[in-house]
Amino acid sequence: MTMLRLDLNRLGREGSVQVEAELPVDAPLWDEGDFPWAGPVGVKLQASNAGSGEIVVRGAIEGVLARECRRCLEPVLVRFEHDLTAVFVESGASDTEDDEGVYVYDSSAELDLSSAVREEILLAVDPYVVCESDCLGLCSICGVNRNTGSCSCSSDEPDPRWEALRALKEK
Fold it and tell me: Taking a C-beta distance cutoff of 8 angstroms, is the pair 153, 139 a contact?
């Protein structure tokens, strides 16, 4: 199982450590989220000891997501690239737990970067994907994909749910 672990002893000796991984699509990291990856996710991070118990992690995350177009529901492959910057503070060192991009860690031999990477991806993934900017979507009456076919449905027929408001407007 591939994990994103930072050896804190090595970081203490060298001052800066690179962490690289190819996370598979079935990694436990993706279990509780909408991450339909089309292939492995590349993670390249550089961790630096910033002093006073702070560790700054910068890097990039790259992969391809298999999503659905929000208009026509056709499958779409979306390239995902995100630059990550996170600060890890030793628990009890300061009161920064509520700061955005700041993570608290317990002093041990290793620091697991997985949850920070997962959170960054969760916040960066675009939930509204379209296959093409001019996608016509599905017909709201019969459901045909208007990009590949046409229908004889009339869009002139008013929605009955708005009838009460129409009656008020006519008064």
Answer: yes
Task: Encode pLDDT of 26-59 as tens digits.
Answer: 888 888 777 789 999 999 999 998 877 789 999 9
Does some domain include residue 168?
A: yes
CB atoms within 10 A of CB 141: 12
CB atoms under 10 Å from CB of 67, counted, come to 21
Residues 94 and 119 occupy one common structural domain: yes
* Long-range contacts, stretch 72-78, CB < 8 angstroms, 24+ apart: 72/131, 72/135, 72/136, 72/137, 72/138, 72/145, 72/146, 72/147, 73/138, 73/145, 74/131, 74/145, 74/147, 76/129, 76/130, 76/131, 77/38, 78/126, 78/129
Domain of residue 15, residue span:
5-124
Number of domains in the chain: 2
Q: Is residue 148 part of a domain?
A: yes
Does residue 129 belong to any structural domain of this protein?
no
Question: Residues 108, 142: one domain?
Answer: no
pTM of the model: 0.75
Residue 53, both tokens: 């118990």
